[in-house]
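Lecture notes, unit on protein representations.

Consider one protein chain, 427 amino acids long.
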Amino acid sequence: MAPSFYAEEPMLMSTQTLGILVGGGPAPGINGVIASATIEAVNSGLRVIGIYDGYHHLAKGETSYVTELRIEDVSRIHATGGSILRTSRTNPAKDDATLQKCIGALRSLGIRYLMAIGGDDTTYGATRIAEATAGGIGVATVPKTIDNDLPLPDNAPTFGFETARSVGTGIIESLMEDARTTVRWYLVVSMGRKSGALALGMCKAAGATLAVIPEEFPDAELDLQVVVDTIVGAIVKRVANNHGYGVAIVAEGIAERLSAEKLAALENVARDAYGHVRLADVPIGTVLRDAVRKSLDDIGVTATIVTKDIGYELRCAKPVPFDVEYTRTLGYGAVRYLLNGGSGALIALSGGRVVPVHLSELQDPDTGRVRVRMVDVTTESYEVARNYMIRLEPEDLQEPRLSQVAGHTNLTPAQFRERFARVARAV
């Protein structure tokens, strides 16, 4: 299918119309949702309009960037990556004027139902449209994010996560072999704005040396040196075990937890339409690499450190069968929910059944935004991952192990214990 950027004929109003758009970052499985929703809607007598670039054009009141979707157009796209409708991070509810332009454009297109595929920000915008139209436009959102950070029922993964973890694990495994072959360390920065789920999942699946995620640090503001010392401690422990190589995975959400002073030092950091720091523009890998190198030099340890960002390689990957199956049910469920009179809910699955989750169940009462699901570091799932990592543990700071590890540095055992005491802790 090669859809036009523009509507090629006037919109017909005799048949009710479903509009489909995609917001936020890409995630494997988007096309599966579009396909199944289109098929179910057409089979139910609806006309389907695909809206390009999320809310971007609608927020300007523009109605030209659309295309009609038919079953023959989408029947084989479910196994492909990317989004045939593209995507954007435009906020349709940044102010009342923008919201009204968006609603006006939807009404001009004859949209009776709207399915928005996206994460927490897209869900928030869609919910505002549902509220403002008071049922005039039925709205359903389908959650997607490779970050796996939406609070879905039964702790279900967000679609796209399983594919991202699978593809990312393959990359990590290759880096682990390269690290062993060339005797170096890779410092991998993984996508994950708030949650460390993707970083931890890739580490656990690949058997990487260690992962460092924001959830491990309880303080609101994160001391970057604690992250540095965690990695340095792992490197020293590996050296003490006669291994001068490894792969450390750091969730990019670490950057959002830095102190105001640290972020201010990173000049001209951009923000997106929702006010979030553009983590892709924060050189967290370079900052960490340089800090780790300096700390190693200070304690007399030599190691080659190479940075690698992993994220964009994952977002438009061909979905694994789990996400193909998952998204086909979600798209179908969203259409059935709308046709049964529902509006304003996020579509999730629980026990194989479609479950509409309303905003009130997802909201953070303090911010009014969708809650972020963080990694629960009290679970056995995290405990297994943590216990299989190479990190300094309390017993490494006790004799005789202390002298053995400290002996590979220029620190005395007492100095080593003092330096690394705060990062050597039990799970």
